[in-house]
From TrEMBL:
InterPro entries the UniProt entry points to: AB_hydrolase_fold, CocE/Ser_esterase, Galactose-bd-like_sf, Xaa-Pro-like_dom, Xaa-Pro_dipept_C, Xaa-Pro_dipeptidyl-ppase/CocE
Name of this chain's protein: CocE/NonD family hydrolase
PANTHER family listed in its UniProt record: COCE_NOND FAMILY, PUTATIVE (AFU_ORTHOLOGUE AFUA_7G00600)-RELATED, PEPTIDASE S9 PROLYL OLIGOPEPTIDASE
Domain of life: Bacteria
Keyword Hydrolase tagged: yes
Domain (Xaa-Pro dipeptidyl-peptidase C-terminal) ranges: 320-571
Pfam family of the protein (one): PepX_C
Length: 582
């Protein structure tokens, strides 16, 4: 592999709030007895657990990283689950993370505190006959080298650790991977390395193309969450810097190719968990599920947020069945699990979950083209006469809206695609944001807090930000000058932009813009509306509390053309609501 040069910055020193009970560097082996408690906030261990702390593992280039291994007390060889992330191998009980979970309304007393942040709980898995491997990747904490950040080189390191796990005398030679967010993104890269001892992966929401999903989504610079992540890297040397990379490489060149895995190379069984509502994970998780080469893959689309979803007892048991099948070779009927289990949100307290299908969107969904009518503000199925609408591109509330009213219970499901004919007045470019929402019969926009804490304070905190925690509908964004499509990868339902060239607009030029909105499953009842809002401002705000919103580069007015020779339309799968129930 060519050694692409990623930008580097010094890593940060550790802080007390990030430290957990076993954070100190102390190589050695201890047995944590049944009943042991990290603290009164966490549950006691249900079994004895062997903790091998700060075990040195050598990467292929000679760099040493350190990992903790937690495994059951048994003479039998056991499978291993690896949780790869830079957030600290012994810090799941650190105040920083415990306070965050409690803010979200999660009951941490159901966890042992031995888990990595966003990772599997050793107390649960050791009791089920599994070992858990908690590495500090290269360049983090006491591990040597410079920290790598979501790229194929990091996938090579992860590969090397999996191979180390596979040949330990306590290992049965089968290794899996699990966890949320970073622990998902890293799985894509590692699995694409065709790691021999890897038996299965469980990506539970996470990005899969760092340019498209995070730093330059829609071709628009968005550094808010990447700025937050800069402070997650604790170590003694340097760490890669996504923001500096984006500023030096604004187009999707070979550097960014290295920050996207080769999905076709992933052939191991995969249990993929996604949602429609995570503003940085949703498209990447669905992309990973669609594009991996494995013929043994399962998708479950849940209705909340990944952290509470991951630790629900029912879902842990489901994951156990998956790993038992492929890491222990137990014939437990997992293979009969529906290929797709999906959700339909109604955003009124009656979401329909665990609906089954052979594909996503389900075969019952009929793709329908709804044409925008700027003259009436409606979306209709027939051709419309030429019309146009415009808005102040610099105003937070500047937008054009189009609505569709349903007369029967209707599910809108799949990958919404928007073809928009637009013109810039007083500018040579446009940053356009679109949002597809459900309105009740009185015209009120509906949304849903995705975490257990649904207090008025959380409602206020997420009203104009923290979009991961408050689902408002399917969204998309695009910079007009980055509109060029990748013809080899694009399909009728899923446009894929190349992001490798800049095409500025000439005065008076009307261009066709193709938006790939987040996949969705939305149930509407008679008299309710689906509303499409087109504007020049990201009304969703930043991803998490404290994450800054991006600043669009807009001037003048945006003109939206509809009907006639410029028939803007929304393409969407629909089916009767009763069809989802079989």
């Amino acid at each position: 592999m060519k050694d692409y040069t990623f930008a580097l910055q010094p890593a940060l020193a550790d802080e007390p709030g990030r430290q957990g009970l076993f954070s100190g560097f102390a190589p050695g082996t201890v047995t944590l007895p049944k009943g042991f408690r990290v603290s009164g906030k966490f549950k006691p261990l249900p079994v004895d657990i062997i903790l091998e702390k700060d075990v040195a593992v050598t990467m292929r280039d000679g760099v040493t990283i350190y990992t903790d291994v937690l495994r059951p007390v048994t003479d039998e060889q056991v499978p291993v689950i690896v949780a790869w992330s830079p957030y600290g191998k012994s810090r799941g009980n650190a105040p920083q993370y415990d306070d965050l979970f409690r803010l979200l309304g999660m009951d941490t007393s159901v966890l042992s505190g031995l888990h990595k942040f966003e990772g599997p709980d050793p107390a649960y898995w050791c009791a089920k006959g599994y070992a858990i491997c908690h590495p500090d990747p290269r360049g983090t904490y006491n591990s040597e080298g410079d920290a790598r950040w979501w790229n194929r080189l990091e996938g090579e390191d992860f590969h090397d650790l999996v191979e180390w796990c596979g040949v330990q005398d306590w290992s049965n030679g089968k290794v899996g991977a699990s966890g949320n967010s970073y622990l998902t993104a890293s799985q894509w890269f590692m699995a694409a390395e065709r790691t021999p001892h890897l038996a299965a992966i469980a990506p539970w929401e996470g990005m899969s193309d760092i340019y498209r999903d995070l730093i330059m989504r829609g071709g628009i610079p968005d550094y808010g969450f990447a700025e937050t992540l800069r402070y997650a890297y604790i170590g003694k040397n340097q760490r890669e810097d996504l923001i500096l990379d984006a500023k030096a490489h604004p187009l999707r060149d070979e550097l960014w190719e290295q920050r996207a895995p080769e999905f076709a190379m992933i052939e191991v069984p995969a249990y993929v968990v996604a949602s429609y509502s995570n503003s940085i994970h949703t498209p990447g998780t669905f992309r990973g599920w669609r594009e991996i080469g494995s013929t043994r893959k399962w998708l479950r689309v849940h209705a909340t947020m990944e952290w509470p979803d991951y630790y629900v007892e029912e879902h842990q048991a489901d994951l156990l069945r998956f790993f038992d099948r492929f890491l222990k070779d137990i014939d437990n009927g997992w293979d009969k699990t529906p290929a797709v289990r999906y959700t339909l949100h109604d955003l009124e307290g009656n979401d329909r979950v665990n609906l089954t299908a052979t594909q996503f969107p389900p075969t019952q969904a009929v793709t329908t083209q709804f044409y925008l009518d700027a003259g009436t503000g409606a979306m209709v199925t027939g051709a419309r006469p030429a019309a146009k609408a415009s808005y102040d591109a610099t105003a937070r509330d500047g937008n054009a809206q189009f609505t569709l009213t349903v007369d029967s219970e209707t599910a809108f499901i799949g990958y919404p695609g928007l073809r928009l004919f637009a013109e810039a007045e007083g500018a040579d470019d446009m940053d356009i944001f679109v949002l597809l929402q459900k309105l009740d019969a009185d015209g009120n926009a509906l949304g849903q807090i995705t975490i257990p804490n649904k207090s008025p304070q959380m409602q206020a905190m997420t009203r104009e930000g923290a979009s991961i925690l408050h689902y408002k509908g399917s969204n998309g964004r695009l910079r007009a000058s980055m509109r060029h499509l990748d013809d080899e990868r694009s399909t009728e339902d899923l446009p894929v932009h190349s992001f490798d060239q800049v095409e500025k607009l000439a005065p008076g030029e009307i261009v066709a813009l193709d938006f790939d909105l987040f996949p969705m499953g939305m149930l509407l009842y008679p008299g309710q509306q689906l509303r499409l809002t087109v504007g020049g401002y990201n009304t969703l705000g930043g991803a998490m509390p404290g994450t800054e919103n991006l600043m669009p580069d807009n001037r003048g007015r945006h003109v939206i053309h509809t009907g006639g020779d410029h028939a803007s339309f929304l393409r969407m799968g629909t089916m009767p609501g009763r069809a989802a129930l079989g």
